[in-house]
Amino acid sequence: MAHHFVRLTPRDPLIARDGRPFGASSGNRMRSLPWFYPSLFSGSLRSLLGKATGGFSTETVAALKALEIAGPLALLNNTLFFPRPLDARVFESGAERHCYGLRPGALGAGEGVDLPGPNLLPTLLPDGANMDGKPAEIAQFWSSARMADWLTRSSASGFTAPPDNTPTSADTGYLAAPPVDFRTHTALSDEKGVADDGKLFITAGLDLNLPNTADIVQLVSRVGNSGWCQQVLEGLAQVHPMGGDRRLANWQHTDDQHLWECPQGVASALAKATKIRLYLATPGLFDGGWLPGWLDKTTFTGCPPGIEGGLKLTLRAVCSERWQPLSGWSLERDSWGPKAARRMVPAGSVYFFTCDQGDAAQLVPRWLSSVCDKAQDRNDGFGLALWGTWDEHKN
Questions:
Q1: Known Gene3D superfamilies for this protein (predicted)?
Q2: Contact 283/342 with Cβ under 8 angstroms?
């Protein structure tokens, strides 16, 4: 399968609505997601490609859905940025900030937990962690170099604390979440001289321009195809809308393969590792909710999709947050209408495994490949995985 690489440069703040009602009869204030879901990006790109290849026949729709679209990921000055890992904790007391990693910790005598599996462990802070002050906010996006360093440090202490979630120079390796741009729209009644009923509303878009600079965050993706629409992808340089309100962006084919390769430091660490971390760069969709369907529901053992050769991983712990809702609207003729709501594992979630059989180096070629259960979810860009290592706490 050939891989192509696409960059999106927004012309306007882009709208990524959440699922709450918005319309003339259901609400006049739009609410934004904090970041773009993979289905929003992949759906917009498929619409662009469908128009460029002559329409949306049944055969074309099937070919579009078969494209393996990975992303979108944030890119600034040719550096990838990933959502902050949820196994990172920062405590702030005055001007001091201390950063630690959560790691699975063995229970002591007389201790117990009610986790949903007999072999699962709680994730704990290291002994001696300075927890003076409150848990602090941290920058929402980490550069690829910061993330590789985080994933290859097996221990849980000794980190430089990331800044809070306010705009900082990209040179620090951290980015804040994009600010939301609110715009008020109205249409005046010629007769009354006031806003028409239902025509006074507020939209919310994600502004990817960095404050006080000329820099702008781009979105990048990797597209795998088997030859269909190859010429269109290779010549892609077009303005096309993405998201709500038909906000415009420039879509362009690039040569970004190096951005999607596993860093050498991570590959070297995995080659000799028996304790493996799985980090989700995009939200995950699994048959078992938070539990990947490729893991046995009783023993929590299994092998990620796309790997052969007898690799066997056993789940030991998970760091995640509350599930996120996913909904949408199908434009296919056979299923036109609202899609069923689903629950996603948030981006940044971390799964801790032990490698009980096989070689963890087999995971290196699966860097930034999807670990979702359903093929269509993998084709839509959900569940892109980075891999790292960890050591157990000895509390």
A1: 2.60.40.4350, 3.30.70.2940
A2: no
**Residue 126 to residues 60, 104, 155, 319, 391: CA-CA distances in angstroms?**
54, 10, 9, 15, 11
Cβ atoms 37, 284 nearer than 8 A: no
Domain boundaries, the chain: 264-389
**Separation of alpha carbons 122 and 390, rounded Å:** 14
Give pLDDT, residue 8. 97
The pair of structure tokens assigned to 361 is: 């180096």
CB-CB neighbours of 216 under 10 Å? 15
Spell out, as residue ranges, where the chain has pLDDT lower than 70. 167-170, 393-395
pLDDT (0 to 100) of residue 36 = 96
- Report the pLDDT value the prediction gives residue 297, as an integer from 0 to 100: 92
Q: Identify whether the C-beta of residue 99 lies closer than 8 Å to the C-beta of residue 89.
A: yes
In this structure, what token pair is assigned to residue 293?
Answer: 């369907």
Angle between helices 144-152 and 264-271 (to 10 degrees): 20
Can you give the pTM of this predicted structure? 0.93
How many Å apart are CA 360 and CA 269, to the nearest integer?
9
Domain 264-389, CATH 2.60.40.4350 — does that match?
Answer: yes
pLDDT at position 169 is 63
With contact defined as beta carbons under 8 Å apart, do 219 and 73 qualify? yes
Specify the residue for token string 């048959």. 287
Residue with the two structure tokens 């906000």: 247
CB 183 within 8 A of CB 35: no
Q: What is the pLDDT of residue 242?
A: 94
Tokens of 272: 């000799």
Residue 162 CB: number of other CB atoms within 10 A?
Answer: 23
- Cβ contacts of 267 within 8 Å, gap of 6 or more: 361, 364
Alpha helices in the chain (DSSP H): 38-52, 58-66, 144-152, 230-234, 264-271, 375-379
